[in-house]
Amino acid sequence: MKNLSGFTLIELMVTLAVGVVILSIGVPAFLGMMSNNQAAGYANDLVGAMRLARSEAVKRGSDVTVCASNSDQTACSGTAWNNGWIVFTDDDGSNSLGEGEMIIKVWSIQSTERESLTIRDTPTPPEAIRFAPSGANALDAEIQLAFEKTDCHASQARQITISRTGRASLDLVACF
């Protein structure tokens, strides 16, 4: 008689059951981590845009503005920051992209992420943030924007604060 080696049907079923249990625990945690990383990435991008605008304002000796962009990333759109943002020279101080003003850089948010990304402020987000040639925040006020995902888990929201001096900082905040 030969000894047969291999898996029995019961061993296979037990292995599959253990795999399903492990996946059911691991997948939600992985999705939460992905959501957290996306919110962090967009918040870091916006802080980078603020720092770029501030340094360009000092370098150029003129106002530079960061505004919420429309879905085409061709013009400012009010307070809809979840489409992306534009850094541009703001020669007329209007906080909107006008004729003859130069676009320095454009950031866009993937269309699949727009619906799940929320950017908030109290009471409403600003339409634009302008930096004076000194590097200071031309609005002369502290501005706060917060990123969160609609499926936000604890400590996944990021708050960006732009001080009166123009310094942008990023902090973790609880979801709202």
Q: Assign the structural class, choosing from mainly alpha, mainly beta, alpha/beta, alpha+beta, or little secondary structure.
A: alpha+beta
**CA-CA gap between termini:** 70 Å
Main beta sheet, described? 4 strands, antiparallel
Q: Approximately what portion of the residues adopt beta-strand conformation? A: 25-35%
Number of domains: 1
Helix count, per DSSP? 2
- How many DSSP-defined strands? 8
CATH class: Alpha Beta
CATH topology, what is it called? minor pseudopilin epsh fold
CATH superfamily: minor pseudopilin epsh domain
Strand order of the biggest β-sheet: 3-2-1-5
- Rg calculated over all Cα atoms: 23 Å
**CATH architect. name:** 3-Layer(bab) Sandwich
Q: Can you put this structure into words, describing what you see?
A:
Helix content is 32%, strand content 25%. The protein is α+β, with helices and mostly antiparallel strands. It has a single domain, classed as minor pseudopilin epsh domain (minor pseudopilin epsh fold, 3-Layer(bab) Sandwich), CATH 3.55.40.10. A four-stranded antiparallel sheet has the order 3-2-1-5, with helices on one face. Strands 4-6-7-8 form a four-stranded antiparallel sheet, with helices on one face. A hairpin with a 7-residue loop joins strand 6 and strand 7. The termini are far apart. The model has no long low-confidence stretch (mean pLDDT 79).
